[in-house]
Design a protein that fits this description.
Keywords: Membrane, Transmembrane, Transmembrane helix. This protein has 97 residues and is mainly alpha-helical. Helix content is 40%, strand content 6%. The chain has one domain.
Length: 97
């Protein structure tokens, strides 16, 4: 069931299919040729409700994303800087060659 912001509901159905194949070998009578359908119905109700997100909540999410990008870029920059510094030190003492 889907409910939008105005309270209108839409009844929907969803289905899933699983396919299994087993080839038959010649000379064996255990494997009968045919098409078999087995249904396993499991009723479940899922409700999707559309809602409004406040501007403050949106701003908080944007700040969290920007902060995460800033932190990861700082870690990458630090790794590059310290790696370059270590390589330069090894080049100066002649251990890199």
């Amino acid at each position: 069931m889907y409910t939008d912001e105005n309270g209108h509901t839409i009844q929907t159905n969803q289905f899933s299919v699983t396919e299994h194949f087993k080839g038959a070998e010649r000379g064996l009578l255990d494997n009968l040729a045919g098409v078999f359908f087995i249904y396993d119905l499991s009723p479940i109700k899922v409700t999707f409700a559309e809602g409004h997100v406040s501007f403050l909540h949106f701003l908080t999410n944007v700040c969290a994303i920007v902060g995460g990008v800033f932190a990861v870029s700082g870690i990458i920059d630090s790794c590059i800087y310290h790696g370059q510094k270590a390589m330069k030190k090894k080049m100066e003492i002649g251990k890199l060659n």
